[in-house]
Structure to design on (448 residues):
DNA sequence: CGGTAGCTTGATCGGTATCAAACCGTGTGG
DNA sequence: CCACACGGTTTGATACCGATCAAGCTACCG
């Protein structure tokens, strides 16, 4: 079968003929923009692989303040380290396609293929490392450093996957990006404009960026 | 043998007679205040169990800005999701005692006792959940909400472990707490003073707190 | 005692939030 | 095909929280 993420997702850990075990327990699901795939507080029942579209994971405070803890794009995995109750909500940024693996059955497959479990462990490590980077960003970086970090992260996500289709789709709105970076949407917008004025980026549409000076953005992102 | 953390650390997953397998591969290590146990960028060689004292994990920016991503106290585990290179530095807050498990040997023990591996997984889930809470704190909470969250977290750490020895040892300096909460040490100090004035806490010494009104602090911490 | 590390408090500054208005771009109905 | 409505974005003016700069203070240690 031809799956868009065959080579990136956890499936990449298995050979073609081994994949059938995963496929038999798997179901597809489509989530429309703005709809939640899972809710904070739910007991987790599935692990998911993002095939198309994108998700934001977020936690919220009683008065509506939100912190997006991660954006998940095609090839990413959700539910690695699941915990009851689920500590975040996952909501679709656009129409999003996922495949869902029910937990109990997934564990059976895990026991059969240790390569899967290993892959799983590196996913966790990567996730923890990414999340620590994000804490540094939220706790210590300025607005420009935050946006630059986001743009570099985004460019990295597209790398190798697609040909460098120069304009990158942002997927998220200014408000989503703000909730990810711990800023307000106005500050995000102003910082985009500032980067544009400085010639670091172009914004053909509000939803697409071109990185004109990636090196400089990388320097800014790391606080250099 | 009598280990202070026998009932909390990962060791709790094993019966007494099974512990010998862990003990034979384990070595003790003492780290003095201010000394690093491991450095950001190192290849990870050991997993550690904190027995006494405390550690701060942190990442830093080129210009010296620091974000403490976690404080580890007795019973906590370090190196769950290890990754090469290590994404953080671990430094002792006071003279700290740990036991160290070399990775390759640890994996052998893991294969023997699946209870250990399970325990390990719940540790990871807890860690990921905690880290997401901390992102919400860093991205969206006010100074008072941050310090209240820290105090509640601290109280939770001591709970059940020791008898409610009313004054809690802070272990960390104002600067460490500031680096954990994404604030400056002055703001942390002012917020302590403010809580004291409001009667929420007492500060018998600068290094010890008594929570006089834990409920109110919990409300503040959650943004209520 | 004096030195020093850590803490508190005060005065001021500045970056980002907040409040507010105008500006797209896209889809819809007349 | 145009007018309008609406979600999202940009830009401007102002406010405010926490950072920064700057003294003192306290406790502990030699």
């Amino acid at each position: 079968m031809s799956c868009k993420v065959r080579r990136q997702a956890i499936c990449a850990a298995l050979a073609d003929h081994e994949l059938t075990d995963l496929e038999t327990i798997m179901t597809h699901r489509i989530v429309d923009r703005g709809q939640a795939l899972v809710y904070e507080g739910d007991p987790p029942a599935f692990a998911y692989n993002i095939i198309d579209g994108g998700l934001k994971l977020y936690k919220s405070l009683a008065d509506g303040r939100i912190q997006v803890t991660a954006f998940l794009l095609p090839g990413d995995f959700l539910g690695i380290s699941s915990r009851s109750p689920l500590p975040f909500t996952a909501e679709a940024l656009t129409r999003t396609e996922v495949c869902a693996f029910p937990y109990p059955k997934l564990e059976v497959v895990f026991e059969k293929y240790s390569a899967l479990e290993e892959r799983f462990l590196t996913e966790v490590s990567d996730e923890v490392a990414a999340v620590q980077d994000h804490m540094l960003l939220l706790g210590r970086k300025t607005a420009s450093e935050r946006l630059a970090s986001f743009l570099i992260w985004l460019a990295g996500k597209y790398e190798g996957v697609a040909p460098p289709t120069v304009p990158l789709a942002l997927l998220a709105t200014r408000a989503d990006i703000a909730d990810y970076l711990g800023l307000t949407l106005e500050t995000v917008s102003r910082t985009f404009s500032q980067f544009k004025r400085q010639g670091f980026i172009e914004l053909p549409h509000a939803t697409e960026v071109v990185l004109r000076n990636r090196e400089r953005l990388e320097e800014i992102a790391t606080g250099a």
In short: The first helix of chain B runs from residue 19 to 25. The mean pLDDT of chain B is 92. DSSP finds seven helices and eleven strands in chain B.
